[in-house]
Write a structure and sequence with these properties.
Layout: H1 2-10, H2 22-29, E1 34-39, E2 42-47, E3 50-57, E4 60-68, H3 79-89, E5 94-96, E6 103-108, E7 113-118, E8 124-129, H4 146-156, H5 161-168, H6 175-192, H7 202-222, H8 227-236, H9 242-252, H10 273-291, H11 299-310
Antiparallel strand pairs: 1-2, 2-3, 3-4, 4-8, 5-6, 6-7, 7-8
Length: 316
């Protein structure tokens, strides 16, 4: 049980997590593994219960996820037992909407670990970080149709800022409904965003980027995204020029580099959760900024990102 609760709390197995390189995983978990290519540019490594996946990025590998295949355990692991153990140490799971095909889904939002459970017998099937589902509106089925979202986005992209703000004032303002609504619109927007290259020319680029940034701001205000999530979305969808996006990433890091919690300095304990989560945010934001480094012109920005990336394996 300690192995499973540790994974839910940390999102890592003996320090190996979804951001670890193949060499780092070997150093942490050893060389007793089976490895396979699951598709073009994809690599999967299996250590009995633990699986780690990467995709090729240039000459290296970028981590996709780490999974604990709990269904292989005998006797089976009960979600009730797991939940009780996590409650006892102060890191409870949150149940989100079922997947509709026979599984319940639980998540520990700060470690971004998702737990998949058999709906009939309550046995834990797998735990994955980062989870592909999330608590709140991000993990719930939308009550609105995809086409209605696209229609609204096509309407909004043609509006000027004053008209868009007037439109926003007519939208749901009750907290839960507003969170669902703005998340629904952001999902519709990102599905319609032109390719980044196409947005580099003329009016279309500024209109789409302006709308996307406006919707992400609305999602932050509604509480469906925090600042770390919003900035990572900005980077992922190329909504700002590289130097500006990297500056936004660094500005969003909630703790100075000299004070950031590390695996060596700070135990994963309930009383340290603020520091642990600040370290997690720093890790996500510096990795997001790192993806843009080849396109960053400002040497001071490049140096600051590099300094954060040197800390990556020590962050929570």
């Amino acid at each position: 049980m300690a192995f499973f609760t540790d994974f839910v709390v940390t999102g890592a197995v003996r320090g190996a997590d979804a951001t670890s390189t193949p060499a780092e995983v070997t150093g942490l978990l050893g060389d007793a593994f089976a490895e396979s290519r699951t598709g073009p540019g994809q690599l999967l490594r299996c250590y009995d219960l633990v699986e780690v996946a990467w995709e090729q990025e240039g000459d290296g590998w970028r981590g996709l996820y780490i999974t604990v295949q709990a269904h292989r355990v005998k006797p089976p692991l009960s979600v009730d037992d797991l939940s009780t153990a996590l409650e006892r140490i102060g890191f409870p799971l949150v149940e989100v909407a079922p997947d509709g095909v026979g599984c319940r889904r639980f998540v520990r939002a700060d470690s971004r670990v998702g737990v998949l459970v058999d709906e009939e017998n309550g046995q834990v099937l797998a735990m994955t970080a980062p989870a592909w589902f999330a608590p709140g509106p991000r993990g719930e089925p939308s009550p609105w149709s995809r086409e209605s979202g696209r229609d609204r986005i096509r309407h909004l992209v043609g509006l000027g800022a004053p008209e868009r703000e007037a439109w926003a004032r007519r939208q749901p303002d009750e907290a839960d409904e507003a969170a669902r609504w703005w998340w629904f619109l952001w999902v519709a927007c990102r599905q319609l965003l032109p390719d980044e290259g196409q947005r580099r020319f003329g009016h279309e680029r500024s209109a789409w980027e302006e709308l996307a940034l406006w919707l992400l701001g609305a999602c932050e205000a509604a509480g469906v995204l925090d600042r770390t999530d919003a900035v990572c979305e900005i980077v992922r969808y190329g909504l700002l020029e590289p130097d500006t996006a990297v500056r936004a990433s660094l500005d969003a890091i909630p703790v100075p580099r000299a004070d950031v919690a590390t695996r060596e300095s700070t135990p994963y304990a309930r009383e340290n959760l603020v520091a642990v989560n600040a370290s997690r945010a720093a890790k996500r934001l510096s990795l997001a900024a790192g993806e843009l480094l080849p396109r960053v012109r400002d040497p001071a920005l490049r140096a600051e990102v590099a300094a954060w990336l040197e800390l990556r394996t020590r962050l929570m």
